Q: What sequence folds into this?
């Protein structure tokens, strides 16, 4: 079968992203995308292009298709639960290493809300981007603030936690190892489930410096600086890794 | 009812009629619509309608392999419920187009 034009391929990829970000059923998404791929093949043979399918506005067309498809409530719920659980595991593992497993009511409510807000932000951004054709550079600048949202919210929560006093739950000392292993197990499960090692990388970047530094007797200030530098460096490595992986996956 | 909704309703009826004449796939429907002069319809607009018609239980789909090999192609066929809907549409259309024609003929006098 002949290849599709770049414009058509881009449309199909964007449509798929849009529908996934809208939480539609995977089977229905794949069926529809394949059907449109078949249509585009025939249309291109007749000398037409993707605008014959989408009409005036690809965005409007994607919305129309999406409107006729059912939301996959179960999967959306599962993803939400996994993001919350995953986010919490990172926090809990870091705290277990530091030996500070205590959480205020505010934190217990706040962390899941931040995780959900982030997930929602990512989904909305993906929908926004897939319905438009922006350069990679512009896409990056749209994503940047979304990526910063959890960081800012975390800081806000830390600040709020100092101002507002709510009941605090403290894990006993023996629970440290148990909680750590549970969180680790969850991350490994999620990595296998999502078939990517990225979570393990992030965990290593966040936790190894923390652990190494906790073994050394630095002053608090040195400790904090060393920690930020190594964490930032680690994240830079992850971004580079993702960048090259994406480049390899889409040679254009 | 906006004009685009009315057009959708009409297009739905036409698709029911085309599918009723034998199993067809998406692009084939467009070619048939074209041959009847439906040039105001953008090609993609049939797919949201087909999704809805499937959900209503008017059509079913089957995947058949292409003669040339390669990926499968989705064919649509009419269900009993779809036949019923087609009959309903025909009645509605005859009544409506009759009224509109009548009205316009009056105007010409």
A:
């Amino acid at each position: 079968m002949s290849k599709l034009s770049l414009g058509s391929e881009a449309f199909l990829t964007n449509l798929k992203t849009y529908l996934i970000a809208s939480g539609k059923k995977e089977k229905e998404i794949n069926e529809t995308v394949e059907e449109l791929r078949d249509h585009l093949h025939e249309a291109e043979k007749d000398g037409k292009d993707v605008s014959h399918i989408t009409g005036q506005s690809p965005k409007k067309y994607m919305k129309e298709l999406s409107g006729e498809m059912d939301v996959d409530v179960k999967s959306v719920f599962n993803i939400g639960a996994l993001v919350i659980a995953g986010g919490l595991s990172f926090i809990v593992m870091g705290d277990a290493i530091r030996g500070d497993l205590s959480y205020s009511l505010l934190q217990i409510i706040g962390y899941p809300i931040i995780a959900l807000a982030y997930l929602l932000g990512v989904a909305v951004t993906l929908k926004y981007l897939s319905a438009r054709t922006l350069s990679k550079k512009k896409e990056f600048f749209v994503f940047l603030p979304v990526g910063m949202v959890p960081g800012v919210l975390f800081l806000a929560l830390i600040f709020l936690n100092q101002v507002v006093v709510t009941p605090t739950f403290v894990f006993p000392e023996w629970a440290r190892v148990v909680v750590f292993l549970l969180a680790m197990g969850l991350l490994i499960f999620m990595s296998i489930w999502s078939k990517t090692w990225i979570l393990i990388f992030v965990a290593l970047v966040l936790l190894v410096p923390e652990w190494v530094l906790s073994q050394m007797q630095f002053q608090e200030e040195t400790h904090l600086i060393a920690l930020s530098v190594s964490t930032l460096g680690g994240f830079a490595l992850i971004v580079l890794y993702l960048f090259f992986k994406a480049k390899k996956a889409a040679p254009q | 009812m906006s004009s685009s909704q009315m057009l959708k309703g009409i297009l739905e009826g036409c698709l029911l009629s085309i599918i009723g004449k034998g199993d067809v796939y998406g692009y084939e429907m467009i070619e048939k619509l074209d041959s009847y002069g439906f040039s105001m319809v953008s090609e993609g607009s049939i797919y949201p309608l087909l999704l809805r018609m499937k959900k209503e239980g008017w059509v079913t789909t089957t995947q058949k392999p292409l003669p040339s090999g390669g990926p499968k192609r989705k064919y649509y066929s009419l269900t009993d419920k779809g036949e019923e809907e087609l009959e309903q549409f025909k009645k509605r259309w005859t009544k409506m187009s009759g009224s509109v024609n009548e009205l316009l003929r009056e105007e010409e006098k």
Remarks:
- Chain B touches chain A at residues 25-27, 30, 42-45, 47-48, 51-52, 55, 66, 68, 70-74 (CB under 8 Å).
- The first strand of chain B starts at residue 24 and ends at 25.
- The two ends of chain B are 30 Å apart (CA to CA).
